[in-house]
Design brief:
Ribosomal Protein S5, domain 2; 11 strands; about 325 residues; binds L-homoserine; 2 domains; Alpha-Beta Plaits
Amino acid sequence: MQISFALEKVNLQGVRLFAPASIANISCGFDVLGLCLENIGDIMEIRRSEVPGIQITSIKGQDLPLEAKKNVAGVAALALLEAHNSKLGFEIFIEKNIKPGSGIGSSAASAAGAVAGINYLLGTPYTNEALVPFAMEGERLACGSAHADNVAPALMGGFTLVRNTNPLDVCALPTPLELAATVIHPKIEVKTSDARAVLKQRVSLEKAIQQWANVGALVSSLYEEDYDLLSRSLVDEIVEPSRAILIPHFAQLKSACKAAGALGSGISGSGPSVFALSKGMTAANEVAEAMKEVYTKTEIPFEIHVSPVKQTGVSFLEDLA
Ligand code: HSE
């Protein structure tokens, strides 16, 4: 939905923004549930340019394509300009703090940041929800599947549930205030396309029943701030059993999270990151210690993030003159 054409920030040359990481699936909600992270994300600058279209001027921190049509931020931004019938030009600078292929929505953050920044400079003609289909084009480029479970929380914040992608129908869900996430990123590469290729294409009715019961209960737990119900719902009967083999020491991580008091844990997006949810940052930090203990015994390098759920999506940090 377009809101207005009247407020374009013509005097503003650019904007600096924070494009957040996100956790997709959240155990039972493959391709539909996601949440936005507060403490992990990319920094981006979007500037007006005399040259029509999109130019990716530089990417700090990762070796990624600069050609707009081969870059997730570029593709998402071009989709927005085309839908807006705009002949304007924008330059995009990205400081990549989220490693591609980590499982915490790296491509989604870049795509969401690009469309949110351009929308801001255009005077916010689109709602955050209306920007989701443009950002999904970045996901299509990244892994061949235009899923929205990372881009929706990265743009809208909090928890989101993607009821349908075409036409898009996204529900914003409430976040229990004390909820905190711990994410361990084992530094091995798991491509989303590979992690999707290992999935079974058929599911038994028994498992499907259990899975949709868990999704419904998880949604209810968010509305009711019922941490016990949330804990019981963080179970994935369908995807996790197929993908677990892609993540070294996955079973030990899950046991360690449980022993440390996490509400639940699972694969973050398509992996290799593993997430846990806890009640409170203190508990989330204890879970981080437990994850660390498992992985320091291995040869695999890793990093760990602890973060509250971010209530809003992409944040604008500074107007650039
Ligand atoms: N829902 C997607 C998947 C997320 O699990 O394949 C990818 O980041």
